[in-house]
């Protein structure tokens, strides 16, 4: 499964009453496709999935598939900390026309490596869909170690890992030991270029909501051997990447979308919107970055 170079983990816009704002979702989809997004991940962490009901998730996934209309791949986040529940959700989205599913490492339970392998293996056996493993220790409290990812890569429909461990050594080990048809994507915007340099495929991005074309330009420069230009673009974008995670994701990127014409700042509790001082700091970095790219 090829997600392209830049996949976007899409935010979920909310109305004033807290319901999903599907009109804004449709406009956001068009914006992403027009601005550097090669594929869309719906119902990931950035989509505030922990606060969405199962019914809301299914409705949002179906809506996204319909509006994208096969222009780019759509990957649905169906993972949870309950293997049975993950299998049930994965089976439900099969009929909605998604191109694959993303499965986060089970959170809170803190399974060992045997438990992680058994969880993903059990889900893979129950679906024909391509699977993206999602390793994000900062949120799950467990790291999918390189050896476990390598073993899981031998299961035919487990084809991608989104590595948000921040551990380039671990990513390098996975790349060195898996087949060429198994892809490693960065889960951190700031590691996009470093991961490409060691053989990674691309990024499942937050920043691409607002700088998707610029990220594509950076990647294109790298692929064309213009390494100095790629490095300069990385350096110019890095302050924005950092600012987008100064508050819990997706709070800053929802605010940032206001800079490109989207009023989607609302988040669901327990997340809260940025303070005026946090917005001021973000605005300062935003202006600096826009002048340098």
TrEMBL record:
GO molecular function term, any single one: 4-hydroxy-tetrahydrodipicolinate synthase activity
One GO cellular component, as annotated: cytosol
Site (Part of a proton relay during catalysis): 45, 108
EC number: 4.3.3.7
Binding positions for pyruvate per the UniProt entry: 46, 204
CDD domains associated with the record: DHDPS (cd00950)
Quaternary structure and interacting proteins, as annotated: Homotetramer; dimer of dimers.
Designated name of the protein: 4-hydroxy-tetrahydrodipicolinate synthase
Organism field: Ureibacillus thermophilus
